[in-house]
Design brief:
578 residues; alpha/beta; 17 helices; globular; redox-active center; oxidoreductase activity; oxidoreductase; flavoprotein
């Protein structure tokens, strides 16, 4: 019989329980104890917005197994053989004696728990804004299930008519949807940065998301930070103040991000990054080989840049927990890092990304460019076909793909492409790898030329110099003020019914209309004295026309990648009413 080891795990939400249960499967005779300061453990924190909006009807579903057993102390003891001590806070780690000082929060009693192996799964805490009024009643962070239960209780009792969500990251957007969709709460979303989902997606995708939220009656204010939370005489929040406006509110949700809980590690003398993440190696060991760490409290590696990064996701925490369990048991296992994958729903839309954005790639020193495409999400002839927008970011020098972003209808089409891209990018894939990757095909699921292959074709054309494009941002700036580029004109190759209203609004000098199928016969009508921005719905026909005009020596053209499929989704006020 092998020697019995005592394993102590601090943290009982995601990484900790996963490590404990996996360890008991490979070392059933070992003593495994989990301590957590909360009374509710092992729940799906990422499901909180869906509980608030009603998609998940009861909070117990977030704590249940797939076979409908509540993951509480009794479940872990009876079904898993794991001892769980809730309402128990870890106070300090004595690394020399291998003991952890803990306190029972109900009795105040302190005791020491010995360990042979220790795991820190202390998670993260929400950022509380350094502004007046954060302690008012009605102000919440999304830090645990208790807060979510209270928020839903207040809404269900009719106590909330107006709400303000501070923070336009994923949680903020999800909470804005949750409050608006089922409950009809008048909701405002405030984001300090110039766009939603900052550093996660590029501005075109953030703009499409903002437009959709506004269509669903969420008021979105970007480039504004909350400066004060205003209360009434009873200590309840009544408004949020920004430099631009005052927004009435019965409920305020601060979703301004999270920071690692790493105090225990730092006080024990373990290495901690300056920003707070616990430093671990590929086996998820800390600088003490008998102490491991995983989940939202650790620093990890970005596989694209090779730099330290932070990735607080439940999916990663579960993967990391299993790896800790393996290594504690003597089974070599590594966690190499992340590429940074993200997906969320927003009402009827899905937005997702993996890897680096274009702006991030430039900031990291890559010779970055991007291919913006707007294909169909399935065969164009199949019922229910819809437009999806993708942006592939790549390095022109090495041809390595650095990232992929997607925006479209709420279905599985984007998820399949983002997941494929994440796997390829993690292995250093190039544009050629994306061109040749094999995707399952049937008309209900994709076009015959898959969207991910098509984006790589465009990237290849850009690298080869066959495609010259103008950025969406520069084009939109020109449309707002033609004096920016007085020698530019649009060449609209769409159907006359689509193009004619633009000619009538902007004039034939500014807006030239020649249908795609007639360009080869009417090319002499296309002016030579202007730089022409070729416009179609997606950009594919525009590229064909650019190649043909290049053949004729008319090289004064640029393609608007993504075309009107992107313009319509961004939302502009200059499209003629038809």
């Amino acid at each position: 019989m092998s020697e019995v080891k005592k394993v102590l795990i601090i943290g009982g939400v995601a990484a900790g329980p996963k490590a404990a249960c996996h360890l008991k499967r490979v070392k059933p005779g070992w003593e495994v104890t989990v301590v957590d300061q909360d009374s509710l453990i092992s729940y799906g924190g990422c499901g909180i917005p869906y509980y608030v909006c009603g998609d998940v009807s009861d909070e117990s579903e977030l704590r249940s197994t797939s076979f409908h057993m509540i993951r509480d102390e009794k479940f872990f003891a009876d079904a898993k053989g794991v001892t769980v001590l809730t309402r128990t806070r870890a106070l300090s780690i004595n690394r020399e004696e291998k003991k952890v000082l803990v306190e029972n929060l109900d009795t105040g009693e302190q005791s020491e728990l010995p360990y042979d192996k220790l795991m820190l799964a202390t998670g993260a805490r929400p950022v509380v804004l350094p502004v007046p009024g954060t302690d008012l009643d009605g102000v919440f962070t999304i830090s645990d299930l208790h807060k979510a239960i209270e928020i839903k209780k207040r809404i269900a009792r009719g106590m909330v008519e107006k709400a303000v969500v501070i923070g336009g990251g994923a949680i903020g957007v999800e909470m804005a949807e949750a409050l608006t969709d089922l409950w009809g709460v008048q909701t405002s979303l405030v984001e300090f940065m110039p766009q939603l989902l900052p550093r996660i997606v590029d501005w075109e995708f953030a703009a499409m998301l903002k437009t959709h939220l506004e269509e669903k009656e969420v008021a979105v204010y970007t480039g504004e930070g909350a400066t004060e939370l205003i209360g009434n005489g009873d200590g309840h929040v009544v408004a949020v103040k920004t430099p631009e406006r005052t927004l009435e509110a019965d409920l305020v949700i601060m979703a301004a991000g999270v920071r690692p809980r790493s105090e225990l590690a730092r006080e024990a003398g373990l290495a901690v990054a300056p920003w707070g993440g616990i430093v671990v190696n590929r086996r998820l060991q800390t600088t003490d080989p008998d102490i491991y760490a995983a989940g939202d409290c650790i620093a990890t590696t970005n596989l694209i840049t090779g730099k330290e990064t932070y990735a607080p996701l439940g999916s990663l925490a579960n993967r990391e927990g299993r790896i800790v369990g393996d290594n504690m048991a003597g089974i070599p296992s590594t966690f190499d890092g992340v590429v940074g994958s993200f997906i969320m729903k927003a009402f009827d839309r899905c937005i997702a990304a993996t890897g680096l954005t274009y702006e991030a790639a430039l900031a990291e020193g890559f010779e970055a460019d991007y291919a913006l495409t707007a294909p169909s999400d399935r065969a164009h002839f199949f019922p229910g076909e819809a437009i999806v927008v993708y942006q592939m970011v790549f390095d022109k020098r090495t041809r390595k793909v650095l990232g992929l972003q997607g925006f479209g209808m709420m279905n599985d089409s984007i998820s399949a492409r983002i997941d494929t891209a994440a796997a390829l990018i993690s292995k250093g894939a190039t544009i050629e790898d994306f061109i040749t990757v094999e995707m399952a095909y049937a008309p209900p699921f994709s076009a015959a030329v898959d969207s991910i292959n098509a984006a790589a074709f465009v990237a290849d054309n850009i690298c080869a110099g066959r495609l010259r494009k103008v950025s969406m941002r520069r084009f939109l700036a020109w449309m707002e003020d033609f004096s920016r580029e007085p020698d530019w004109a649009a060449l609209d190759i769409r159907h006359p019914l689509e193009a004619t209203p633009f000619v009538e609004k902007f004039g034939a000098e500014r807006w030239v209309a020649v249908p795609y199928a007639e360009v080869r016969k009417r090319y002499h009508e296309i002016p030579d004295d202007k730089t022409l921005i070729i416009l179609c719905d997606a950009g594919t026909r525009s590229f064909e026309v650019q190649v043909f005009l290049d053949h004729l020596g008319k090289t004064n053209t640029m393609v608007l990648s993504g075309g009107f499929n992107v313009i319509r989704r961004i939302g502009v006020d200059w499209i003629p009413q038809q």
